[in-house]
Amino acid sequence: MSRTASVKRVEEALGRIEALDGQLGAFVAVLADEAKAEAAARDAERAGGQVRGPLHGAPVAVKDLVDVAGVVTAAGSPKLAANRAERDAAVVERLRRAGAVPIGKTRTHEFAYGVLTPGTVNPWDETRIAGGSSGGSAAAVAAGMVRFAVGSDTAGSIRIPAACCGVVGFKPTYGAVPAVGVFPLSWSCDHVGPIAADVESATLLFEALSGLPAPAPMPLAPLRLGRLVGAELALVDPAVNEAVDRLCGRLESGGARVDEVELPLRVARSAAATIVLPEMAAAHARLLAETGEEGYSPHVLSAIRLGQSALATEYLAGLRYRGRFVALVEELLDGRDALLLPTIPVVAPDRDSRVVRLGDGSEVGVQVTLTALPGAFNLSGSPVVSIPVGLVDGLPVGASLVGRIGGDYRLLQVAAVVEDAAHFTARPVLHA
Amino acid sequence: MDIAEALRTRLAAAGLEPPADAHDRKRMERDLAVHLERVAVLAEADEPLGRDDPPYTDPTRAMGSA
Predict the structure, then answer these.
(1) How far is Cα A265 from Cα A270, in angstroms, rounded to an integer?
(2) Which of A22, A107, A183, A379 is the most exposed place for a label (fewest CB within 10 A)?
(3) In a 3-state reduction of DSSP, which class is residue A10?
(4) Residue B62 and residue A310: Cβ atoms within 8 Å?
(5) A396-415: burial string, b at 16+ Cβ within 10 Å, e else
(6) pTM surpassing 0.90?
(7) Closest approach of chain A CAs to the CA of B14, in angstroms?
(8) How far is Cα A73 from Cα A90, in angstroms, rounded to an integer?
C-alpha cells in the first residue's frame, strides 16, 4: 500500500470530497479537523519508525450506522439527529489500531432498511440510485474520494451498492467482523464489512476489521466455480446475464472450470426476510417506545409494525430453514472454489422509480428486486464478495462469488483471480 | 385473501391498529402481502421442515447440521 504521507493522503481525500460531494451526497459528516490531526500523528509515528500496518495513515469512510466517538450516529434518521456516540464501535477501534484515519460518515438508507439511500446519487449517472443501504460508502469509493469504506449488510446492503457503483463489496462470514457499536437491523442477519476500490484493498480492510491475520497466499490451482442457474435467476436482466457469461468465458479461457449449479434462493431469501422483520421490531422497541412514531418514514414504520405482529412460528420457520440452506451451500462448495451469480438482477435503477421492469414485462418493487439474490446469503452467513465485471448501458454490473463459511481469505484470493479476468478498468466521469 | 382484514387481525393481536392515513395503510397492506407470500414460499419448500431442523440464530452454528 501507499507510503505517501498520511497528511497528504487525507488532504487529497478532503479535497476530492469538497469538490464532488455537493453533487454526490455520499457523506453526512466530514471529520476534516479530526482526520488531519490523526494523520499528523500517524506521520509522526512513521517518522519515528512506527508503522502500524498496511492501512497506516489511510483515510477510511465509515457508514453512518457505525459509532465514531464524539460524532453523531444518525443512522439516516431524524430520530437520531442528536445521537452523539460516546465511544467508537469495535470496528472503528480496530481501524484506529491499524493506523487508519476515519475521515467521515457516509450516508445510509434510514436505519439500513432500504436500497435507495436517498440523498446520494450514483457517480456513474446521477439519475440512478447508488444502491443501499451503504450507498454513501459505495459512492465515495466509486468517486475516488477514498479507497476504503465500511458498510453493513443485512440483505445485500454492502453488495448492492457495490454493484450499482462499480466497486468491490465484501460481506464476510457472519460474526467475522464484530457488530458492536453498529445500530442493529437484524442481529442474526447483520454483517459488517469492507467496500473498497479493488479486491486487494478490500482484503487489507477486512484484515483490519476482523483482526484475523491474513495467511500467506496459497497457490491456486485452476479455479472451479459453480455458476448459479435455473428458475431462481429468471428475474435477471438478459444484458446482466450476458456480462456474467462473458466473465465465465474469460475465466474458462484461462483454464477455470465453470459448471452449473442450483440453489433455492427464493426460499432462502424468504426465510431471511421472515427473520429480519421481528428482529428489526425488537431492535427498535425501545426507541419506538421512548420517542413514538414521529420521525420514522412510513416504509420503515410499516416494517417495524409488521415485525411486531409477525407470528413466532413464521420467525422460527426462517431460523429453522437456515440449517438446510447452510448445508446446501456448503455441499455445493465441496470440490469448488466459489459459487458465482450476478450480484443484483439489473443495473442501478432510476432514482425516481420504485419498481423495476423485468425481462418478462412484470414490475417488481426495487427493494424486493435488488435483495432477491444477495439476501439469501445473509441467511447462510456465507462470505460473499461482489466485484465489477462489465458495463451495461454505461452502468456497472457486479458479479458475486460465494465462499465457504470461515473461508474469507480463500474467497478473496479467488476474487482477485476473477477480478484480474474481468479486467474492469472503467471509471465514472466526474466534473468538480 | 382479504389483505386489509388480515392486516387488521394481525395488528389487533399485537395491540396495534392500522395506520389512519389511507396511503400508509395501503403501503402496509402491500408489505404484508409480500411477507405472507414469503411465508408461503418457505412453507412450500421442497421438503417440509421436520424435527431435525432446529432454529439457528447464528448461521455458523448450523455448519454440518444437515
Answers:
(1) 8
(2) A22
(3) helix
(4) no
(5) bbbbbbbbbbbbbbbbbbbb
(6) yes
(7) 5
(8) 14
Residue type at position A338: A
Q: Which residues of A touch B58 (CB under 8 A)?
A: 174-175, 188, 381
Regions of chain A short of the pLDDT cut 50 = none
| ipTM of the modeled complex | 0.96
Contact check, Cβ <8 Å, A267/B45: yes
CA of A77, closest CA in chain B: separation in Å?
Answer: 18
Residue A290's contacts (CB-CB under 8 Å, 6 or more residues apart) are none
Verify whether the Cβ–Cβ distance A380 to B10 is below 8 Å: no
% of residues, chain A, pLDDT over 90: 95
Beta strand pairing status for A224-228 and A338-342? Answer: parallel
pLDDT at A108: 98
Report the half-sphere exposure of B9 (CA within 13 A, side-chain side): 8
pLDDT tens digits for range A132-189: 999 999 999 999 999 999 999 999 999 999 999 999 999 999 999 999 999 999 999 9
Nearest chain B alpha carbon to A277? B35
pLDDT of A218 = 81
